[in-house]
Model the fold of this input.
Amino acid sequence: MRAVWWRRAGGGFALCVLALGASVGAPEPSIDPSVVVYGGDATFAPYEYVDGHGEPHGFNVELIRALGREAGVGVDVRLQDWWSVLRDLDAGRVDLVSLPLTEERAQRYDLVAQTWTFQQEIVFTDRAHAPRAIEELAGVRVAVSPGTLTFTLLTELDASRRPEMVPAENLSDALRAVRDGKVAGAAGNGLALRAAARDLGLDDLVELPLRSVPYALATAKGRGPQFSWVGEALNRLHETGRFNHLVEQHLVIAPGPRTWRDFALPLTLGLAAVVGVGGATIVWNRVLRRQVRSRTRELAQSLAEKERLAASLQDREQQLEVAQGIAHMGSWEWPLGADRVTCSPELYAILGVDPEAFAHTRAAFLGLVHPEDRPVLSEAARRSAEEGRALDIDHRIQRADGVVRHLHVRAQAIVGAGGQVLRLAGTARTSPIASSGSWPSRASASSSAAS
Done:
């Protein structure tokens, strides 16, 4: 699949910064690099939680650390109660969080990258009387944490199917209520429920699926372009297999510690000789099959959701290519720490170069700029890169076929959490200025830095 950086960057950037040349060097590796603050729930195992030593742990924690290492970005993980995390995100004290996506959250936050698919469900311990369908939930007492996604899903059920919801502080409290006979079931994320059930010694749960929901890294509204590196790093983790390793390490729920009670029945069956061995094998196989079916269902749902998103992403890429062709506008991106610039297909067409044969370096792009316009362009681009200013400029290019084209370009600097410029990105479109007329060189740089 083609690189999609230019779609993530939005439409307000520009080509002209490629003319920086030697006047704007890539930033030196920093001893104190920009640090991204990741906020998470301290009690949401196996995704994110504080372990027995007071250290942050879990799938989300190790994933964001791996993404940071892949992109050369420092990561500070801060786990606390979930509502404090969201308040810190809104206040700018936290950069990234992981949360299940809903329409309301999609309006409130910027999606950075989907990492998993949640299976929200209700679990029961009484197999003989557990509801088998959502239609059988009416009047059933279910423990659930108010304000959570699962609570919202249950409240959205019509009255004829809605269970009696009993407030619980967290998943462990909800499962304790089930164990103590106060409620029939506990509702929440499937994996988190099974992890908490394991710690409480509850086995052989009966699961009633509610809904599959995308689980994603998100940031405050308007800050999404700052984290385009996340999607690139995540793709590399998938390609190298390290993502699958993290899944196997953190999202496969291992059995809890065994006590003598766990072995009492197998020992009794063993003393019963051949008949007992046969019965124990059947029971054990049934338990294993249920666990495998549950895990396979969740992995299949996650894979199906990723395939759907990939197909949707490819469709949007194609639509954007068509739109850029109609508008005669191209887009590009240049990370300041690299000498390679990536462009959309339409920009290569505007420049009159073959993307397979073109060098893609800053010098190669600068060589296409009309010699008379290079000084003004270079100075404007330098200010944009060094000061984080937005930029708006007209200049000429001289194609290899001798055609001179006038371009109108806009650029914006993508600034990291530490205030330094990480990358320059933008758009360029053909200008209506006549080729035969005099050239009114124009450049402006906004006084406000991109954030």
